[in-house]
Amino acid sequence: MNIERQGFDAAAPDSAFRFTGTWREFAPIAFTNLLLTIVTLGIYRFWARARERRYLWSRTEFIDDTLEWTGTGGEMFKGFVVVMALLLPGILFLRFGMQAMILRGQAEMAGLIAAVLYIGFFYLMGVARYRALRYRLSRTYWHGIRGGGDPGGWGYGWSYLWKSVAGWFALALLVPWSMTQLWNERWNRMSFGPHRFESFADTDGLIGRWILILLSPFLVMLAMIPVVVALIFLGALAGFAAGGSAANPGLMTYVAVLAIVVATYGLLAFIGVGYFAAYARKVIDRLELGDLRFAFTAGSKDWLKLFLGHVAVVVGTLGIGFVFLSYRNWSFFIRHLEASGDVELESLTQSPDTSATDAEGLASAFDIGAI
Amino acid sequence: MARAYLYDGATAIRHKVRIEPDEEGLLLSQEDGWSDAVPLGRLAVSDHSGSGLSLVRSDVEGWRLRVPAPVPAEIDRLFPRRQGYGRWIDRIGLWRAAGAFGLISAVVLASGYFAPTLLAPLVPPSIERAYGEALVGDFGGKYCSSPAGDAALRKLTAELDSDPRDLNVRVVDVPVVNAAALPAGNIVIFDKLFEEVDSPDQLAGILAHEIAHVRRRHVTAAMLREFGLGMFATALGGSTAGRVDGFVSLSFTRRAEAEADQGAIDMLRRARISPAPTAAFFRKLKAVEGDESRLAPALAYLSSHPLSSAREKKFERAALRNASYRSALTPREWTALRAICSDRAPTDD
After folding, report:
1. What is the DSSP code string of A138-163?
2. Do A71 and A132 contact (CB within 8 A), yes or no?
3. Count of A–B CB contacts within 8 Å?
4. Of all helices (H) and strands (E), which one includes residue B230?
5. Which of B183, B206, B250, B333 could cross-link B329 (Cys pair, CB 3.0–4.6 Å)?
6. What's the half-sphere exposure (Cβ side, CA atoms, 13 Å) at B142?
7. Whether A64 and B240 lie within 8 Å, measured CB to CB
8. For residue B8, which residues of chain A lie inside 8 Å, CB to CB?
9. Which pLDDT tens digit goes with each residue over A230-263?
10. ipTM score assigned to the predicted complex
11. Distance from CA of residue B334 to its chain's centroid?
12. What is the third-level CATH fold of B2-82?
């Protein structure tokens, strides 16, 4: 069998990643998924997720070929059932046992058990996040090669627990630190083919934007002052025009409330997006795989457009458009993802990791995503 | 003969190959003489769409054969397009599968909805007692008792119910304003309720409501529902099942509450106790709930109890102009009952 030496300079003018899907192709998948999910009372959602990913991955090109999703609905369903069976005692306690203990006057003991359970669930959410990422990589193929990661994730769970808690201490100033640390820890244990991901994100440039979020309630109040003053002025004017008696106080109140609500949400969204845009750029820019470096180009404006687009799609379709949100998210992610460096096809050999079999069951149980 | 490319699963290198069907399956070959025959049984379709055909091989991980569009007919026909909904659905078709699943779900929901009410009378008292014992226990033994108070409570119960032997009405010293019907004919009145109730007739209305819950087996039905559809929805997870369960449980409790109110009115009429004071109690409750906004009637569909104002009107209408009502308890009995947990002045307001 002859072997062609192939290497790609991924730093071509166009991005190495391209998304070629269209919403017209996606719509039949999304709507049949919705139908089947409803008639099965939600059980089909695992198969729906597999179909959706199969499509999105198959329309995602990296250099010269598409990605391929090989995970199945059946394995995700099984993973979920196993996890639910393991979590059942805890869920039963919180649903029935706790009330029974409180009614017996053992409120302290019940509270203690509940606290232990909630901490345990929080720990498992960290493990779930890790395993979901590993599962997704292990079901993602490119050129017949798949990703993987260290099995387990139990140690990551502890890290997730204490770093998340530590982040909220010190007036929540350490949240950017815990977020980037946990991102690095997760990705440093992931791999594609023989190569390990290397992630070395730090908090430079994140702290300031995060402090803005923490200060946002005060900023909103400050921003309200001119709005309120203007409204009072306008109200007085309207009253004056109507000959001294308030012309339509009801309408005025509605306008005022609407203006304040819109302004508050607008400002909060703007500040929040500013941080998360910087965070996403930071963690992806500091991610490497072999000779490949990644970059993420979405700025705050792009994120805002994405969210406003989400709102428009959902509102404009009276809600049914929510089935397109996952499509919009994925296409946003891929359109702004870039890679540079070399891919040596010869040395990109099959992943030595055993493939994940838990199929993000833990993450499904907690209803969380991986990235 | 068609052009394709192959990834062998060992490295990411893309090999150009020619493919053609032969007796065994698919024959792959290269110009340098390399060839491989793959039996059809080992090949599966991973993608068959407008962009071409992608095949995987069950015995070699990562082995991928990509045939770009247009796929030659002699190859295309070997690999029928799958819908990819999932094995069962692909076999019988989307619409038939949706119909079948819908039917099964409807049966599950209908039995989750109706079975508790239908089966509740069949649950033996021993099981109900064990359930009550396990889930509710004894309130840490915080029951209140005094000879005169107990006697007053017994009298009130007997006025409302013709055969109160299987009812166990007690006052418990837990600081909530409420009363509750529990499994196995247990009814508890929380001591703090006495601070909000102005007259024995009001207490009679509330107690009658709880007795009606017991007599109509609402508690047993709720218990069955919780273990049936409730557990089912929890185990299934996801938002669809949760929402369905929420609506079922809501309509269930709303129906039960309305029935219990009706039962209470009937009981009060038989006992010749006026329902008007109970209406006054709901008026008070309404004040606590806050001003009735225009949204309130819409919210009634989302709350488990009927709106206080609707209940107020119902009890008010039930009060007959020229009926000769009597007081549910004598002042002396009422005083004793109010003081059953702690000394409390005869009247607060």
Report:
1. HTEEETTEEEEE-S--HHHHHHHHHH
2. no
3. 147
4. none
5. B333
6. 18
7. no
8. 1, 144
9. 777 776 666 665 554 444 556 767 777 787 778 7
10. 0.78
11. 39
12. PH-domain like (2.30.29)
pLDDT at B290: 53
Phi, psi of B37 (to 5 degrees): -110, 120
Percent of chain A with pLDDT over 90: 49
Ramachandran class of B137: left when φ > 0, alpha when ψ lies in -120 to 50, beta otherwise: left
Q: Are strands A140-142 and A68-69 parallel, antiparallel or unpaired?
A: antiparallel
The answer to whether A134 and A153 have CB atoms below 8 angstroms apart is yes
Output the pLDDT for position A325. 93
Chain B residues with beta carbon closer than 8 angstroms to that of A4 = 13-16
- Three-state secondary structure readout of A107-121: HHHHHHHHHHHHHHH
Contacts of A299 (CB under 8 A, 6+ apart): A277, A281
The residues, any chain, with a CB within 8 Å of residue A337's CB and separated by 6 or more, are A15, A17, A284, A294, A295, A296, A297
* Window from A23-37, B248-262, B301-315 with minimum mean pLDDT: B301-315
**Half-sphere CA count of A45, side-chain side, radius 13 A:** 16
Segment A10-43, tens digit of pLDDT: 444 467 899 999 999 999 999 999 999 999 988 9
Give the containing element (helix H, strand E) for B185: none
B283 token code pair: 């008026």
| Candidate from A35, A144, A365 with C-beta closest to B62 | A144
| Burial class, A305, CB count within 10 angstroms (exposed 0-12 / middle 13-18 / buried 19+) | middle
> How far is A332 from A183, CA to CA, in rounded Å?
20
Task: Sort out which chain A residues have CB atoms less than 8 A from B86's CB and list them.
Answer: 44, 47, 73-74
- What are φ and ψ of residue A288, in 5° steps? -130, 155
Return the beta strands (E) in A157-194 as ranges. 190-192
Measured distance CA(B252)–CA(B220) in Å, rounded = 12
Q: Is the dihedral of CA B131, B133, B139, B143 positive or negative?
A: positive
Q: Which residue has the tokens 């008292």?
A: B125
